[in-house]
Protein: Deferrochelatase
Organism: Streptomyces doudnae
Amino acid sequence: MPDQSLPQTRTPAEQTAPAEPPVPGGRLSRRTLLGTAGATGLVLGAAGGAVGYAARPAEAVPLTALGSGRAMFHGKHQPGITDGLQASGHLVAFDLAPGGGRKAAAALLRRWSATAARLMAGEVAGHGDTGVARDAGPSSLTVTFGFGHSFFAATGLEKQRPVALDPLPDFSSDRLDRRRSDGDLWVQIGADDALVAFHALRALQKDAGSAARVRWQMNGFNRSPGATARPMTARNLMGQLDGTRNPKPSEPDFDQRIFVPSSGEPAWMADGSYAVVRRIRMLLDDWEKLSLAAQEGVVGRRKADGAALSGGTETTAMDLDKTDAAGDLAVPINAHARITRPDQNGGAAMLRRPFSFHDGFDDDGAPDAGLLFICWQADPLRGFVPVQRKLDRGDALSKYLRHEASGLFAVPGGAAEGEYVGQRLLEG
């Protein structure tokens, strides 16, 4: 879990989108279909903070700011990369049906793109809509599509497979279940409402029809926007602030680190990115036996506020040379935050945008819980790989983690109006 910070949690006020736009092609939106949604839950004050819960359904209450948040499907980059963390998410990989080839893949991506664009606009999915999300607005839904290494052989496009998509090396911390790893196609779904996220998952799975079958699927969550008094770095299931040093779009080299340049190779990946996906089990029973001081020593940061053990606040630069009264390094030599610093890894950087997960309990009562780690970079050989190799050599946190599934996916640039994701590859 490299310590490069997550996008901050958004407040509902920060997510508010303009009133629902005209519906293209005369399609009915979920809101138009059902009228103004009656709110049975959160009551929002003028500042957008939760002030109480309604005891019974209210009458003629408009959609909250949380529901009306809207991300754009069409654009230079695909959604779900630089957007803020979302409360609910699904990751799902598909394998193409044998013999379908390039033509079937193109038809599937065309269907998926059309459905994703409608759902992200708050409209019904189309024919056979299940009605699961009919009471909700877009809820900042994002849908992101990527191609795995095996996709190119299945479609006869091996010559277009990027070198950056070569399989990740083996790491000593890997305990990978191959059945829950890789895949021809990858879909990332996120929303600030769990039903909206599930609705999108179900719609896309139905759209796949006989063209592709689900290989694996994982469900995740984050803190809901507005749950804290102010926007702040999210916490993981270990209780630590997780993500204090994420690259920020305001930084001059952000695009260079995260996105493939317009002049990059192959040409169809221009403005795209590469996603590394890892299911990382947290051994919480062992972790929670540690004292607070021991936990902080493993991470290298204070649990309460995320500040480095060398002092200051969460955003204060870590002093790697500072010692304590006993002459020991304030930030231990094998602390996770020290090892993962970009300046300790040749400048390697990645944009982390994960979800937490909890999938029940083992027979001995241990929670099957942890992090659905997702990181974005222009080249995984310069981003994820060098950092993970260094973690393999002596990260104090590795003792409490188990990497159980893995995938690497090429995520092409965004689709323009009238196009579908991957069109430059499949019709080039």
Observations:
- The radius of gyration is 22 Å.
